[in-house]
Each structure stands twice: as structure tokens, then as C-alpha cells.
Fold:
Amino acid sequence: MANDRIIRGLESWDNEGGAQIATLAAAFEIEDFEASEQRILAFLGASLLCLWDELPTDARQAILNQKAVQKAYDESLVKTRIQSLQK
Structure:
């Protein structure tokens, strides 16, 4: 039974776009961020993954939508939002 749940979870992940996560991640140059910024991004990413199953399906799909993410990505905006979290 646990295997069935895992298989369903993996199929759901793939259907939501998770199978392309490595491609999406490679498109962003994390090296452009300072070490402290990288730690915050890692924390936010880990937090997102921990709460993944609680997110609505449309939100999960939007997060993994390669075209939408690349279009919305703005390094300076990300850095500004990181700074606002540190206050």
C-alpha cells in the first residue's frame, strides 16, 4: 500500500512538471547570489518542499511552469525580496 502511495505521488509530481525540475534549476545562475542569499533561497526551497502536498494543484503547476517562471524571473527582484525577509 505504501508503494502505491509513493507511485501516485511520483506520478502527480511528474504531471505537475516536477520531472523537468533539473532543467528549470539549471536555467538560474545561483552563483550570482551571495552565500547568505543562497542560504535563504535554500531555506525557502526546503520550506516549499515540506509544504508541497498542502499547496493547491494550480499553485504547484505554476511554480513548475518553465515558461512562466523564466518570464517572471528577475534577479534584482529576488535579491530585493531576500533583503526584505532579513529585516
Q: What stands out?
A: The CA atoms of residues 30 and 38 lie 7 Å apart. Residues 2-85 form one domain.
